[in-house]
Amino acid sequence: MAYRWSNDLTRADITPKSAFLNRRQILVGTVGLGAIGLVGSAAQAQTLEPNTLEEITSYNNFYEFGTGKTDPAQNAGALVTSPWSIKVDGMVDNPGDYGLADLLDGLTVEDRIYRFRCVEAWSMVVPWNGIELADILNKVGVQSGAKYVAFETVVQPENMVGVQRRVLDFPYVEGLRLDEAMHPLTLMATGIYDEPLANQSGAPIRLVVPWKYGFKSIKSIVRITLTDEEPPTSWNKVSAREYGFYSNVNPQVDHPRWSQATERKIGGGLFASRQDTLMFNGYAEVAGLYEGMDLSEFF
Ligand SMILES: Nc1nc2c(c(=O)[nH]1)N[C@H]1C(S)=C(S)[C@@H](COP(=O)(O)O)O[C@H]1N2
Ligand SMILES: [Mo]
Questions:
Q1: Is 201 in the pocket of ligand 1 (CB under 6 A)?
Q2: Which of 160, 179, 178 minimizes the C-alpha distance to 170?
Q3: Which of 13, 79, 107, 252 is deepest in the core (most CB within 10 A)?
C-alpha cells in the first residue's frame, strides 16, 4: 500500500487487533461497576461484537461505484488515493490545500469500536482507527462566526462508474453543525482493524458519526469547509422529506417508507433475529446537543 499515516506514525504505533478484543472485554466488564467511559453505555457493550473485516468491506454503500451492495468492492479498486490532498476553506485561520499526511501530522490516531446504522435498517459494528475531527478543526483554526462544517467527496469520473451513470448529483456532499463536528465521538477514520481503509470503505479518509444514519458518514473526503450556513447534503437534495440534515438514529421516527424500530446486523445470517434500534444508536451522551429540538420529526 502506498498510503502512509504520516511521517512520524507507522503501523507499529497502531493498536494491534488483539487490543480491540481486550477493550471489548473491558467494556463489558466495567458496565456493572458503573465505570462507563466515552463508548461505554450498557446497551452498547452488549452488542459490540465487531463484524469481520470481510463483512465490513464486502457490503457497502458508495454510489460513486454503483448502487448495488457489492458494486463498491468490485469497482472501487480504480479509485486513486495517493497522492491525496484536502482543501480546507471558508471560516478558518489556516485555509489551504493540505497533503493528507501534513493535515494529520502530530494528531493522535484513536481506536474506536462503533456501531454503524444505515438508514436502510442494516447495521454493523466497526473497529475504526481515526483522528477526532475536533483535533483537525482545532489545528486549522475555526473562526468565531463558523456554525457548520461541510464535506465533499472526491470525483474521479474516469474511475467511478456511478459518476459516469449520474446515479446521484456528484460530488457527494455532507455536513454537520459545528458542535456535532467537535464532539469527541466524531471521527475521521483512516483505518479499520489497523488496516488502511479499503477503497470501498472510503479511503484514504472518511467521516464517522456513530449516532447518525450512515449516509452522514461521507467517504473519500477532499474538501472541508467552515461556514455560517447549513450546507446542502446529498440525500436531502434527493428527498428532503425522507432524509433530513440532522438524521440522528431514532427508533421512534419511521422513514416514510419503512420502520426504523429494528435493524438487521450484517453477518448474522438469513435467520438471525433483528435487533432493537437504540436512540442515538446507543450514544445517549450526545442528547445534550439537541436540547430544545423536536426529535419526533425526521429531520
Ligand atoms: N461519497 C459517499 N459517501 C457515502 C456514501 C456514498 O454513496 N458516497 N454512502 C453513505 C451511506 S448511505 C452509508 S450507509 C455509508 C456506508 O459505509 P460503508 O460502506 O463503509 O459501510 O457510507 C456513506 N457515505
Ligand atoms: Mo446508508
A1: yes
A2: 160
A3: 79
